[in-house]
Write a structure and sequence with these properties.
68% helix; mainly alpha; two-stranded antiparallel ribbon; two-stranded antiparallel sheet
Amino acid sequence: VGGEDVHSNVEAIHKEQESLESGNEQRLSLRAHAILEILRTDLLSTDPMMKAVSYRLLDAILIHDRKGQFVQLLADGGILNAALSDISTAGATAEVILFPARESARHLYALEAMLEALFRVASSRQANGAERLIRAGLIGAVNACRAISLPISDSRHGKTVTDEFMIEGSQLRYNHPNVSEPTQRERQHRILAPLLRLMTTVQCALPHSVDVQTQLVEFLEGHEDMVSHVLADNDGYEASHLASNVTELALLSTILAHCLGKYLWTSTKNARNSSNGHGTPDKYSMAGSSPLALKTPKDWNENGRTSVTMLLDKVLPRVVTLLERHCGPAAKAPCKYRERIRQLRAENTPGGRAEASVIEKHLLQFRATISLFIRRLAHSGRFWLSVTKEGRKHLDPKPSLIFMAQVLLQAVTDWNDSETSRKGLMQKLANVHELAAAALDDVVESLSVAPYEGLQNLSHRHRRNLALKALSAALRQCQQNSALLLFIVENTLEVIQMNLEKGQKTTEITHAGMVEDRYAGRNEQETARLARELERPLARIKTMIDECDEKEMEYANTLVRRIEYVLL
C-alpha cells in the first residue's frame, strides 16, 4: 500500500539518522584520546558514584564508536582489566544486593554501569571487543559474581530509599525520601539482566570458540541456583516484576540454547547451504530425512561432555514446563505475560506502553529461543514425542505432538496479527504527509513509549517528523516480530516432521508369515487427531495468501507445501 511513498519516507529517516551518527562519530574520533584521558581518573576511582557516572558516560560514547577506536584505547589503557577486577570484587559482596544502605546502593549502581559499558565493548566487532574481554578474564570475573545467585526476598518491608541520588538509564536524578525502596529482587535484576546480556553478546560474537562454550558451561554450573531460579519463572512476583522476569528468561534461554545446543547440534553448515532466502531448508522441506546429524565436538573432553549431559538433565524438564506455559495456545493456557501486556495496553499510558513493549519483545525472543532449543534436542535424538500424552509415564516431561501442533497454530496466528499491524503502519506511513496536526499528535502519542508534552506548541513540520520516526520505529519492530514468529513456525514444524518420520510405517513379517504394516508410537485414532490439529494452521496460512504481496505469497506457499507434506 503506497509502497513508493513508504520507501521514500523511511529512506529519508534513515539518511537523517545516518548523517547524525556519522557526525557524532567524527567529532568523538577527533577527541578520543582527550575524552578518555578526562574519564580515566573517574573510571579508575574508588568512589562508586564517580565510577557509576563515568561508566554511564562511557556507555553513551561507545554507542557511537562504530570503528572500535574507544574499545582499543580502553584495552590498551588497562581499563578493561580494571573493570573486570571491580566486577569480580563487587559481585562477590553480598551487601551489594541485600543491604539497603546508601553505600551498598552506590556499589550496585557502579556495578550495573560497568556491566552495561562492557556490553557495548563486547558488541564492537570492529575492535574484536568480545575476544578482548575473554582474554582479559571475563568469564572468571563473572563466575566470581556471587550476588546473582544469592537467595533473595521479594517484599518491600515498607522501607524507603535512603540514597540521595539514583541512576536510571543515563539519567542522574534526586530520590524523593518517600519513594519505595527497591526490593532485593529489583536490585538483583539490575545486575543479572546486564550480566546475561553481556554473556549472550560474547557468545554470539564467538560462536565457534569451544573454549568460550566450555567456560559458559562452567558459568552455568557455578550459578546453578540462579539458573533454577530464573527457569522456575516464579508466579509469586508482583506484576511490576514481570518485565524483569521475562527479560532474564529470554537471555538465559539464549545461552542455554546456543551453549548446550552447540554440544548437541554442531553441523549447521548443511542447513544454511540448503536454505532459501527465508532460511527454510528446501532439501528438508520435501525430503524424508534431515540433512543435520548429531556430531559431538571432538574438542569437548570427557568432563565437558559429562557437564553438558548433567545440565541438560536438570534444565530440560523446566524448559518443557516453560514451553507449555508460554508458547502454547493463549486461549487454553493463559500466559501471565500476555495478560500483563493486555492490561498495560488497556491502560494506554506512556509508562504502560514502554513496559508492554519490553515484555512483548522478550517474550517473543524467549519463544523463538525455546523453539530453537527443542529443535536441536530433536536433532540429537533426545526429544522423541508421542502423539498424545495419554498412557505415558508421569515422569516423562516432554510435550505431545498435538501440543506442538497447537504451538504451530499460535505462532501462525501471531504472525497473521503481526502482518496485519505491519500493513496498517505502512498505510499510515504512506499517508503521513496528508495528516492534519491533531492526527499527527495522535500518531506520536499512541506509538511513543515516552510522554510528549507541548506537542501543540510545535510546528506542523516538526510534528510530522516525530510521527515519521514513531511510525518507522514501530514498523521496524513489527518486521522483527514477524521474522521471529516465522522462525518459531519453522522450528516447530521441523520438530513435528522429524518425530513423525521416526515413527514412519515399517513392513514386518509376522510369525504367521503374513506381511504387516506397523506404526511406531501411534495408532490411527491418534494420527487422525494430529492431522486435525495440523489442518488448523494450514487453513490459517491459506486464508492469508490472498492478502500477501508477491514475496510473502511465495513463502506462505512454501509453508503450505511443508505442512501438506507432514500431513501426507
